[in-house]
Amino acid sequence: MREIMDAKKRVTLFCALIFWRCAQCDKPHPLDPLTPDELNLVRNIVQTSHPSTTITFQYVGLDEPNKAEILSWASSTKPSPPRRASVVARFQDESLEMSVDMSSGSIVSSKVYEGHGFPMLSMGEQARASLLPFRYEAFRESLKKRGLKKSEVVCACFTIGWFGEAKSKSKSKSKRKVKVKCYYAKGSANLYARPLEGVAALVDLDDMKIVDYSDRELVPVPKAEGTEYRASKLKPPFLPNLKGIAVTQPSGPGFTIRGHSVSWANWKFHVGFDTRAGPIISLASIFDQQKQKHRRVLYRGFISELFVPYQDPTEEWYYTTYFDSGEYGFGQSMSSLQPLTDCPPNAAFLDAYYAASDGTPVKIANAFCIFERYAGDIMWRHTEIAIPNEVITEVRSDVSLVVRIVSTVGNYDYVIDWELKPSGSIKFGVGLTGILGIKAGAYTNTDQIKEDIYGTLLADNSIGIYHDHFFTYYLDLDIDGEANSFVKSNLETVRVKDHTTPRKSRWTVVSETAKTEADARIKLGFKPCELLVVNPNKKTKQGNKIGYRLLPGPVAHPLLLNEDYPQIRAAFTNYNVWVTPYNKSEKWAGGSYVDRSRGDDTLAIWGLRNRQIENKDIVLWYTMGFHHVPSQEDFPVMPTLSGGFELRPTNFFESNPVLKTKSPTNVHWPNCTFQN
Ligand SMILES: *[C@@H]1O[C@H](CO)[C@@H](O)[C@H](O)[C@H]1NC(C)=O
Ligand SMILES: *[C@@H]1O[C@H](CO)[C@@H](O)[C@H](O)[C@H]1NC(C)=O
Ligand SMILES: [Cu+2]
């Protein structure tokens, strides 16, 4: 084992030496995430203006320049617009929104947020809140009652949502509260499999104290046996070892990374980072060989929200309806990727930085990996045997570029891939792995169960609670420019009336261009349709509208009632597709302030204005969902469950854009068995 570790370290060092790690070598891009120096600067500016008082940083990110400025920067040699940071802080029990100009060192705007809901939880306050029970007498009693030692228990913070609590007039009465629940940590690293069920503390985050506590019932803590997942702690036998395997690129990677700008094959784009959203892909454009120019595809794309409602209505679980982006920060939850296992050997890495609750920069080393994916797949092929005395076979290998992150939000690990293909497609992959949300119960066999347990009995005393995962993507497509339209092409059955043909029916395409937001709200899976974003002002030589279409992934619709509180807050999942006119401040589908939000600032509410969306700069919002009925194989750690969707050029190119392409150069492979 030791040797394997050393070998891994050597390879990592080797890779780090070969690949570009060049944060400062080119002029900064206006969409670059804040650097550690900039984060420190912002902290100093904000603290100087609020001396001798405590101010905590809940969100620090790039206050991005207006789209028009970015576009004119991108298409000329203009200097970058001034760098600004957007800050949300807690100060004297209020949420303070600031815009900080980093070149002049001043706060250019500052206002107190007056609406419902609270900013993202910081990592620091979650850690502090999780320690509070240990100094709380009633909790110590609870441990004693269960025969557990303090040193063997760890706690974590859970957001509590909003369940119709009185609409208090006075802001001071509306409190930032979370629940703290605890786990037994002795004998296994799998905390989440071993909850101290029935015990919960209610914590006021601003006052940082326990305001309520309950110990409702004595439920057996699931045993450690069978919960471990670390190879070093598991006893043999293991599955037979696979032989060594790797993709090698003897002449180095085919992409270049300058700062955060990436170019590869016919693509170029920018990889940004935001503490709330995680990865942000911007200004993606593709080189069109026939037109001999780069053409714009995606101005900006990111995961706007991730809604994960659990389906147990009892005291300790009913509020478990997470918004992983707006409450926990999908970006600040990103994990350092493990070279060679999270990403292949030919990957390059980028770091990310976010602001801690005191404003100081925190580094996530190897937060992104970027690599060329080659798995022996086929990009296109044909075998022709109809020509006499000749067999023609043409094949091209499929190689794509992947940008990957992993965000670990408490128990769950989400693998998020952005995959760009030379054919012009962008594929979005999500992988769900990690540990299930587990509830302790008395049962050891389904025969004993006489009531609804709201989940699956996975192991002795361990219930995997039913839940969903809804990923809402923000996709600001700019197909050959900003002015775009959304077209719904329904495939409809037509009865053939012409009696000269024996056919009774056929299907055809009936396209409608959405005029307003209401026309573009779609629940997928009920009737066949193609969903396109087109540039109505540009046509191919053949006269078709230039566009890209959305090829949806797994279709899931919310199963909660519309009037249920979590669903009011997550009403943006009521449709799989929404289209809005571009508006810089409409970025977060669940609203700007999601913790304890009341659903009054969601995509579903903005859409009620029913604005014009035809031939305008538009944003496509797409929600891909998974209903998760846990099974025993998901325990003690879950094999990755994958899903994804695609944006695919559709009459964007005049013909197959990868016709005149060759498969990658042959790399000599020892003892190859094919004949040529
Ligand atoms: C942009 O969106 C915000 C939030 O929905 C709204 O208050 C504002 O009026 C919008 N701006 C425009 C120009 O529509
Ligand atoms: C290649 O073949 C030779 C001779 O059959 C064998 O000794 C060697 O182990 C093989 N190498 C690999 C990498 O399979
Ligand atoms: Cu799940």
Percent in helix: under 10%
Oligomer: single chain
The total tally of domains equals 3
Find the count of extended strands (DSSP E, 2+ residues): 30
Mean pLDDT: 93
What is the end-to-end distance?
Answer: 41 Å
Question: Going by CATH, what is the homologous superfamily of the largest domain?
Answer: Copper amine oxidase, catalytic domain
Indicate the CATH class of the largest domain.
Mainly Beta
Please state roughly what percent of the residues sit in beta strands, choosing from under 5%, 5-15%, 15-25%, 25-35%, 35-45% or over 45%.
Answer: 35-45%
Q: What are the distinct ligands in this entry?
A: 2-acetamido-2-deoxy-beta-D-glucopyranose, copper (II) ion
| CATH domain topology of the largest domain | Beta-galactosidase, Chain A, domain 5
| Broad shape | globular
Question: What radius of gyration results from the CA coordinates?
Answer: 27 Å
Briefly say what this structure is.
By secondary structure, the protein is mostly beta strands.
Describe this structure in words.
The strands form four sheets. This protein has a 19-stranded antiparallel β-sheet that branches. Strand 9 and strand 10 (261-264) form a beta hairpin. The longest helix has 17 residues, at 2-18. The two termini are 41 Å apart. The chain is mostly beta strands. The chain has helices at 2-18, 36-49, 67-74, 123-131, 137-146, 565-569, 603-606, and strands at residues 55-62, 84-91, 94-101, 106-112, 153-159, 177-184, 199-204, 209-215, 255-258, 261-264, 267-274, 278-288, 293-309, 321-323, 348-355, 361-384, 392-409, 412-420, 426-434, 438-440, 455-459, 462-465, 467-477, 483-495, 505-513, 529-539, 545-551, 577-581, 616-628, 638-650. Helix content is 10%, strand content 40%. The protein contains seven helices and 30 strands. The chain has three domains: 2-106, Roll (Nuclear Transport Factor 2, Chain: A), CATH 3.10.450.40; 123-233, Roll (Nuclear Transport Factor 2, Chain: A), CATH 3.10.450.40; 255-650, Copper amine oxidase, catalytic domain (Beta-galactosidase, Chain A, domain 5, Distorted Sandwich), CATH 2.70.98.20. Copper (II) ion is lined by residues 432, 467, 469, 628.
